[in-house]
Write a structure and sequence with these properties.
heterodimer, A: 300 residues, mainly alpha, MetI-like fold, 2 domains, B: 345 residues, alpha/beta, 10-stranded mixed sheet, 12 helices
Chain lengths: 300, 345
């Protein structure tokens, strides 16, 4: 749980205390150490924990991410430029990011509403719904694609044929990202003291004012972090679209299919360039959402 | 507070998903160690379609003196992915891919000898052709390539960008114009009209068959063996072998540091006995004296593989390297046509 922003900030400090202890150490009495530490200094135990966390994090995340960036930079700026200026790639990026933003916006409303219903309301079948919510997580995405195709495809019972259209991309994104906001908002909502709402009501606040000024600020961090997850999941989606979207260039082709195409054509640099562009987009969205979340929380 | 940190971790986790798409594509599959005891273990890495044929050939190989005591470790998947996996260290003695380029990749990596395609079949172990699949009874009355650009026709063909084998289909549609006496400009014009009728470009040949069966389109461009195999497994559709079409050639090769038995196996694959198993699954044999027998699922099981009057090959188009540069790379003919047709849709 440790490798959040805090740990990264603390990184330069991490080696200092153990190194100091080793060189000046020995059996001498150094009992001033534990008490004289500043707030950012680390005890040996937490230093060890930080070391393990950072090593783990580096092996799994930082080094692979760096490898992507190195691969992407192998062709220099021209590869980046080519990847960005290919109109087909640009169309795919626009579609992917556009649909991901749209889907995330819908999830913010629907996810919060579902979490609210699950926490605050009692109804038959509630336990079942709790379990079913997670199914988009568990289902292999290609199966999700098949399910959506059989429902919204040409031979579906609803009589609509959304296969191979942009609606298909939208639906697939909605399906795979549904649980994120529900699952991040739910625990916060559970912790929320209902007395505060009652107090607000007794002071004359309307239900809407209570929601806006009391509940929303508490939920904002959970909603925005769920939204960030949902967005990142959507822009990287591939499996469910293989059968559903038709991969039509300039129409329903998403960024991950473009990446696959570059890999198949043995243009690894182009693939890595597009991947790093997706990473930057994801970072921008995460930071923006974080800023929004802080604003709303401060508003309280 | 801890939730925010937790969320940070999960966000990063989502980012990894993007990164791993690139990094791990080549790392699928894992070579198991050979079981102890007597006998030889051979590693076969191949594309998924001929798995059953390969297994049948292995069974027959086991009945020969050389093939006795050989056990198999197999890995199947999309041809390009499998080839990249071998380059990245997946253990292989014998490889069977759908495209020559997937073996060339191994030659470039120093894993397969440059002379791999100098044998009597030029490194090819099975053949097929590009065919047009239509609904049962052929309600649209499609007979040839020219009928595919008529109103109401909706075509599904695998995505030539993300699936290497899908390129056979596009090349067949293009080159048939030239085989019928047209110019390159005519061929390009035809391909543009063709793409105007494309309803979906699924990820692989099998996905395309599924999309067609699902009703997304009324015409599927496929491979003869894929059509025959689907009909063998009970799918109900017709297929048409056009008068002018492309011969599909699937290579097989032995790696440089492979067990010597792998070469014996390749020779067995190229014997009439080995070829017979490919024939049974709908592939055309590459050895002339292969007994054909009855091929269920073929249009005419007794005479399963009529030779079309104008059957051209990839070397008629200049070979794969030239074809990829001319048609499929960034700025090539197909992306250019897709740009024109995609915008108008």
């Amino acid at each position: 749980m440790t490798p959040g922003a805090g740990t990264v900030d603390a990184q330069p400090l991490a080696p200092a205390p153990p190194a100091g202890a080793a060189t000046t150490g020995g059996p001498g009495k150094r009992h001033r150490l534990p008490r004289a530490r500043s707030a950012t200094a680390l005890t040996p135990v937490s230093g060890l924990g930080l070391g393990i966390a950072l090593t783990w994090f580096s092996l799994l995340v930082l080094i692979p991410l760096t490898a992507v960036l190195i691969q992407a930079s192998a062709g220099g700026w021209s590869a980046y430029w080519d990847a960005l200026t290919s109109s087909q790639t640009l169309a795919a990026l626009k579609l992917t990011v556009g649909q991901a933003v749209l889907v995330t916006a819908i999830n913010v409303v629907m996810g919060t509403a579902i979490a609210w219903v699950l926490v605050r309301d009692q109804f038959p079948g509630k336990q079942l719904l709790e379990v079913v919510i997670d199914i988009p997580f568990a289902l292999p995405t290609i199966v999700a694609g098949l399910v959506l195709l059989s429902l919204y495809g040409p031979s579906g019972p609803l009589g609509v044929n959304w296969a191979n259209t942009r609606v298909a991309v939208f639906l697939a994104f909605l399906f795979v990202t549904l649980p994120f906001i529900v699952r991040s908002v739910q625990p916060v909502l559970l912790e929320l003291e209902q007395e505060v709402e009652e107090a607000a009501a007794s002071l004359g606040a309307s239900r809407f004012t209570t929601f806006r000024l009391v509940i929303l600020p508490s939920l904002a961090p959970a909603i925005t972090s769920g939204a960030a997850l949902s967005f990142c999941r959507a822009i990287s989606e591939y499996g469910s679209l293989v059968l559903l979207s038709g991969n039509l260039p300039y129409s329903t082709e998403v960024a991950s299919v473009r990446i696959m195409s570059s890999v198949e054509g043995d243009h690894l640099t182009a693939a890595a360039a597009l991947a790093s562009i997706l990473l930057v987009v994801a970072l921008i969205v995460i930071i923006t959402l974080d800023v929004v979340s802080r604003r709303v929380a401060r508003y309280a | 507070m801890s939730l925010r940190k937790l969320v940070g971790v999960r966000t990063v986790a989502a980012l990894i998903a993007v990164a791993t798409t690139i990094l791990l594509t080549g790392c699928v599959g894992g070579a198991a160690t050979a079981p102890g005891g007597a006998g030889t273990t051979l590693h076969l890495v191949g594309y998924a379609v001929p798995k059953e044929a390969n297994n049948a050939i292995q069974e027959k190989f086991a009945e020969t003196p050389e093939g006795k005591d050989v056990t198999w470790e197999e890995s199947y998947g999309p041809s390009g992915d499998q080839s990249r996996a071998v380059v990245n260290g997946l253990k292989a003695d014998y490889v069977n891919f759908s495209l020559e380029g997937d073996v060339t990749r191994l030659v470039k990596a120093g894993l397969v000898d440059e002379t791999w395609n100098s044998g009597p079949t030029n490194g090819i172990v099975s053949d097929s052709t590009v065919v047009i699949v239509v609904q049962k009874g052929n309600p649209l009355g499609i007979k040839d390539w020219s009928d595919l650009t008529k109103p109401g026709v909706k075509i599904v063909t695998p995505n030539p960008a993300s699936s290497g084998s899908a390129r056979w289909n596009i090349l067949a549609a293009y080159q048939q114009v030239i085989a019928n006496g047209g110019t390159e400009a005519d061929a390009k014009a035809y391909l543009t009209k063709f793409f105007n009728h494309v309803a979906a470009l699924p990820g692989s040949g099998r996905d395309a068959t599924n999309a067609f069966l699902n009703g997304s389109a009324n015409v599927l461009i496929s491979y003869e063996n894929e059509a025959i195999l689907a009909r063998q497994s009970g799918e109900d559709f017709d297929y048409i072998l056009p008068d002018a079409t492309l011969k599909i050639e699937n290579p097989g090769a032995v790696l440089k540091n492979a067990n010597p038995k792998a070469k014996t196996y390749l020779d067995f694959v190229l014997s009439p006995t080995g070829q017979e198993e490919f024939v049974e699954k709908g592939f055309r044999p590459v050895v002339a004296n292969t007994p054909l027998g009855e091929v269920s699922g073929a249009n005419n099981p007794a005479k399963p593989f009529p030779v079309p009057p104008k059957l051209f090959t990839i070397s008629d188009l200049g070979g794969w390297d030239a074809v990829n540069a001319k048609f499929f790379d960034e700025g090539g003919l197909v992306p250019e046509i897709q740009k024109a047709t995609g915008r108008s849709q």
